[in-house]
Write a structure and sequence with these properties.
- It is a single chain.
- The protein has 513 residues and is of the alpha+beta class.
- It has 3 domains: 251 residues, Bira Bifunctional Protein, Domain 2 (BirA Bifunctional Protein, domain 2, 2-Layer Sandwich), CATH 3.30.930.10; 107 residues; 67 residues, no CATH class.
- The chain is built from 19 helices and 13 strands.
- Strands 1, 2, 5, 6, 7, 8, 9, 10 and 11 form a 9-stranded mixed beta sheet that branches. Strands 3-4 form a two-stranded antiparallel ribbon.
- Strand 8 and strand 9 form a beta hairpin.
- The chain is globular, with a radius of gyration of 25 Å.
- The structure holds adenosine-5'-triphosphate and magnesium ion (3 copies).
- The site of one magnesium ion has 3 residues, from strand 10.
- Keywords: Aminoacyl-tRNA synthetase, ATP-binding, Coiled coil, Cytoplasm, Ligase, Metal-binding, Nucleotide-binding, Protein biosynthesis, RNA-binding, tRNA-binding, Zinc.
- Its main location: cytoplasm.
- Belongs to the class-II aminoacyl-tRNA synthetase family.
C-alpha cells in the first residue's frame, strides 16, 4: 500500500464505523496560552473533553499535523538520528465524545479495542504475532485500579504473553491537575528480525529501547474527572481519544526499518541526494543530514503556511532554530553552500495536495520566506563555523582568555582548578553567547556542533551572559528614557530593540495521547 492508500484506508475504516471525518487543525496555535503548537490530535477537541463546547458529532476521525519541538513533548534532538521521531508528523485519530444525554451515541473500550485490532490485522494485515499491547497496571499509592476491562477486551484477540502492564507514567493520561483523565493502552509492533530477537528477550521490549519495536498507536479512555482535592469521580460521559503515528504505521506496513525509507520521505531524500551528489546510505553522517533536511522542511513549511513567520521570539524563534539547524546540516555535511532548502517546498506542497492544501495554496510565499532566511543565515554561518573551529583548535589557556580578560583567575591562583573544571570538553558559555549574538547560532546548534566533537556547552554560563546582555540593554534604555530612571527593572516595559532569544516555556497543562 502507498502512504496515500494507507491514510485513505484509515478514513474509510472509521467512516464505516459511523465516524465523521474532520479537517486537521492548524499546527500553529494562536489562542491557547498553554500551547504553542499542536502536538496531538486531541488538542482541537480540548473544550469538548472539558465539557465547555457542544458536541456536534459524537464520533470523529482525522489526520492531524503535529509538531513536537518544544515544551512537554520535545523530540528535536532525536530527529534524524533515530528513524521514527519527527518534528512534524501526522497523527491519525479516532474519537468518541460521550454525551450524558445520549449515552448510546458514543463508544468506549470494547469498540475502541476491537476496531484498533480489526484495522491493524484485517485491513492493514499486520501479522498478529508481531503486535504487543499495554494496559494500565494500577497505582496503589494514587488509589488507581488496574484497567482490568482493557486487559479483558484485549485478551479476546491477543495472546496473554503479548499483553503487558504499564505504569502511571506510560499508561495513565491526565489533561491537567484537574479534569478528565483515564487509563490508556498502547499498541507496539515488533519489527525485529529473528537475529535481533535473540539479542534481548521479548516481553521486556515494549517501551524499551529497541528501535525496531515501534509504538504506533495510543488509545486513551477518559473515564474519570480529577477534582481539586485530588480525588477521582467517574465521568457521566466517557470519551475515547486515540493517536496513531502515520509515518510509523506506513513504515511498518511497507516493511521498512526506517520511516525515511517509506514513500513519504524517499522522494525528498532522493532529490537531496541527487542535488548533493552523495548517495543516501553511503555514510551515517550524510544520511543523518539528509534525514534532518527531509524532516525539518516539513515543520518549517507547515508552520509558515499556518501563519507563523520565523522571528526572534517564541514560536517564530522555534521555527527559525529548526530552519537554521537544517541549513547547517546541509552546509556542513552535504556541501550545500548556497540556499537550497527552499527548493524542497514545491515538492512538499505537491506531496500534501489533497491532504493539507494549506501549503500548495501558499507555496510561493512559503518558498520565498525560506529562501530569505537561508540567504541571511548562510552569510554568517560560514564565519561562525570558522570561528567555532578556531575556538576548538585553541589550547585551554587560550580559551580561558575569552572568559577571563583581566586574568582574575590567575590573580587568585585558581586558574588551574578552573580550567580543569570548566574546560574539559566544555565550551565556554561566553563563547556560546558570542556565537549566538554575533553569528545567529541558536544555542542548540552550538550544542549540536559541540556534541559532534564529544563536547558539551556550559549552559549556566551561557544563560548568565545572555542575562547580562539583557540587563545591560535595559540599563541603557533606562538611561535614555529621559528625566526618569526606572528603579524596579521588573516593572519596566519591555525593551523592543533587543533580540529576545529566549523562548518562553510552554505551560502545557495536559498530557496527550
Ligand atoms: P514515543 O514514546 O515514541 O516518543 P509518545 O508516547 O510520546 O511516543 P504519544 O504521545 O502516545 O507518543 O502519541 C501518539 C502516537 O504518535 C505515538 O504512538 C506515535 O506513533 C506517534 N508519535 C509520537 N511522537 C512522534 C514523533 N515525534 N514523530 C512521529 N510520530 C510520533
Ligand atoms: Mg514521545
Ligand atoms: Mg511512548
Ligand atoms: Mg504513547
Amino acid at each position: 500500500m502507498t502512504a496515500k492508500e494507507i491514510r485513505q484506508a484509515f478514513f474509510n475504516f472509521f467512516e464505516s464505523k459511523q465516524h465523521h471525518i474532520v479537517p486537521s487543525a492548524p499546527i500553529v496555535v494562536k489562542n491557547d496560552p498553554t500551547l504553542m503548537f499542536t502536538n496531538a490530535g486531541m488538542n482541537q477537541f480540548k473544550d469538548l473533553f472539558l465539557g465547555e463546547a457542544t458536541i456536534k458529532y459524537s464520533r470523529v476521525a482525522d489526520t492531524q499535523r503535529c509538531l513536537r519541538v518544544s515544551g512537554k513533548h520535545n523530540d528535536l534532538e532525536e530527529v534524524g538520528i533515530d528513524t521514527y521521531h519527527h518534528t512534524m508528523f501526522e497523527m491519525l485519530g479516532n474519537w468518541s465524545f460521550g454525551d450524558p444525554a445520549n449515552p448510546e451515541s458514543g463508544y468506549f473500550k470494547k469498540e475502541a479495542i476491537a476496531w484498533s485490532w480489526e484495522l491493524l490485522t484485517e485491513v492493514y494485515k499486520i501479522p498478529k504475532d508481531k503486535i504487543y499491547v499495554t494496559y494500565f497496571e494500577g497505582d496503589e499509592k494514587e488509589g488507581l485500579e488496574k484497567d482490568q476491562e482493557a486487559f479483558d477486551f484485549w485478551k479476546q484477540y491477543v495472546d496473554e504473553s503479548h499483553i503487558l502492564p504499564g505504569n502511571k507514567k506510560d499508561n495513565f493520561w491526565e489533561m491537567g491537575e484537574t479534569g478528565p483523565c483515564g487509563p490508556c493502552s498502547e499498541i507496539h509492533v515488533d519489527c525485529r528480525t529473528d537475529e535481533e530477537k535473540t539479542l534481548v528477550s521479548g516481553a521486556t521490549l515494549v517501551n524499551a529501547d529497541h528501535p525496531q519495536v515501534i509504538e504506533v498507536w495510543n488509545n486513551v479512555f477518559m473515564q474519570f474527572n480529577r477534582l481539586k482535592d485530588g480525588s477521582l469521580k467517574s465521568l457521566p460521559a466517557k470519551h475515547v481519544d486515540t493517536g496513531m503515528g502515520f509515518e510509523r504505521l506506513v513504515r511498518v506496513l511497507q516493511g521498512k526499518s526506517s520511516n525515511y525509507d517509506t514513500d513519504i520521505f524517499q522522494p525528498m531524500i532522493q532529490f537531496i541526494a541527487e542535488k548533493s551528489g552523495i548517495k543516501y546510505g553511503a555514510d551515517e553522517k550524510t544520511d543523518i543530514a539528509m534525514r534532518v533536511m527531509a524532516d525539518h522542511i516539513r515543520a518549517i513549511s507547515f508552520v509558515i503556511a499556518d501563519g507563523q513567520l520565523p522571528s526572534n521570539n517564541k514560536a517564530g524563534y522555534v521555527i527559525r532554530r529548526i530552519l537554521r539547524r537544517a541549513v547547517r546540516y546541509a552546509y556542513t555535511f552535504l556541501n550545500f553552500k548556497e540556499p537550497f532548502l527552499n527548493e524542497l517546498v514545491p515538492k512538499l506542497a505537491e506531496q500534501f495536495k489533497d491532504v493539507f492544501d494549506e501549503l500548495s495554496a501558499q507555496q510561493d510565499f512559503v518558498q520565498k520566506v525560506v529562501l530569505e532566511e537561508e540567504v541571511s543565515f548562510l552569510k554568517t554561518l560560514r564565519l561562525g563555523i570558522s570561528r567555532f573551529n578556531t575556538y576548538m583548535d585553541l589550547s585551554n589557556d587560550q580559551r580561558l582568555t575569552i572568559n577571563d580578560e583581566d586574568n582574575t583567575l590567575e590573580h587568585f591562583g585558581i586558574k588551574d582548578i578552573y580550567q580543569k573544571e570548566r574546560f574539559n570538553n566544555i565550551i565556554n558559555g561566553n563563547f556560546a553567547f558570542e556565537l549566538s549574538d554575533t553569528f545567529g547560532f541558536p544555542i542548540d546548534l552550538t550544542e549540536l556542533m559541540a556534541r559532534e566533537k564529544g563536547w558539551s556547552v556550559d549552559l549556566v554560563a551561557y544563560e548568565q551572559a545572555l542575562k547580562k546582555q539583557k540587563d545591560d540593554s535595559r540599563a541603557a534604555t533606562a538611561i535614555d528614557t529621559g528625566d526618569w530612571v526606572i528603579v524596579n527593572a521588573d516593572e519596566q516595559s519591555e525593551f523592543v530593540g533587543y533580540d529576545d532569544l529566549e523562548i518562553e516555556t510552554e505551560i502545557i497543562k495536559f498530557r496527550q495521547v
